Backbone:
């Protein structure tokens, strides 16, 4: 398909503003990324002030900062309708959020925020948005119509 194949390339849909649920998920994920970054900084500061488990706390803090940066980057891609961003954020939300539910009251709150943000990405309105943005589905629809 595309240039030189004799058939037209699938047209991309006109740029439309993401639906409210995606805008809400974007805002929620930005808040979650900030919370994870604050937790990471807190771990690193604790490692500097305590001499017990300082290597483990530094490693946890560094990992949290990397996850926060990856989340922030994925949020930018989410606004553009990239399915990979939804999958990356969902993975972060489940893999990081679920274990935090068993780590004390402050981290439980962060875990709940991550899981709630993940749920926003899989609501029916969100799924519809990503289906409309899927190039394979657009190409199939273009061939039918």
Residues:
């Amino acid at each position: 398909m595309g240039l030189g194949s004799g058939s037209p390339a699938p047209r991309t849909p006109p740029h439309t503003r993401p639906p409210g649920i995606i805008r809400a998920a974007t805002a929620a994920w930005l808040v979650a990324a900030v919370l994870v970054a604050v937790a990471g900084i807190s771990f690193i500061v604790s490692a500097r002030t305590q001499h017990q488990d300082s290597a483990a706390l530094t490693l946890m803090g560094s990992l949290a900062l990397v996850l926060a940066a990856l989340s922030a980057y994925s949020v930018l891609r989410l606004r553009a309708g990239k399915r990979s961003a939804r999958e990356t954020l969902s993975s972060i939300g489940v893999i990081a959020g679920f274990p935090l539910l068993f780590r004390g009251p402050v981290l439980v709150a962060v875990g709940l925020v991550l899981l709630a943000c993940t749920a926003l990405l899989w609501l029916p309105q969100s799924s519809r948005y990503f289906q409309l943005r899927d190039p394979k589905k657009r190409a199939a629809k273009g061939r039918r119509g």
Residues 20-49 form the longest helix (30 residues). Helices lie at 20-49, 54-79, 83-100, 105-121, 124-133, 135-144. DSSP finds six helices and no strands in the chain. The chain has a mean pLDDT of 85.
